[in-house]
Structure prediction request, 123 residues.
Amino acid sequence: MQRGFRKIRNSLFLRMLNNVLILDFGSQYTQLIARRVRELNIFCEIKPYNKLPEDLSSYKAVILSGSPFSVRAENAPHPDLSNIKGKKPLLAVCYGAQYLAHFNGGSVENRILGNTGGPIYPI
Prediction:
């Protein structure tokens, strides 16, 4: 019985030490990202981009997921990340990376072939 208690206690301790927030922008890979993070024995929570927790003190880092949107689209998600940027480590994947670049002085250009198009080689 003590082994079970020790395992639960250690699990709770890891949650307090390693807690990552994943902001979901609608990516099909969000669950895969969470699974990979959990395989590293890091506790993570997935929250929708528009339901950002008020208290972020328990999170050690934030991951911004992808999205089917482009940051250049009028209806693209636009969350307020002022409580996170510069205060927590950020990992941005796909749309999250575009979002950080676009709204922090970078440039996100349209691509004719879309996201999965290969390189064009002259013949």
In short: Residues 2-102 form a domain with the Rossmann fold fold (CATH 3.40.50.880). The longest strand covers residues 19-24. The chain is about 30% helix and 15% strand.
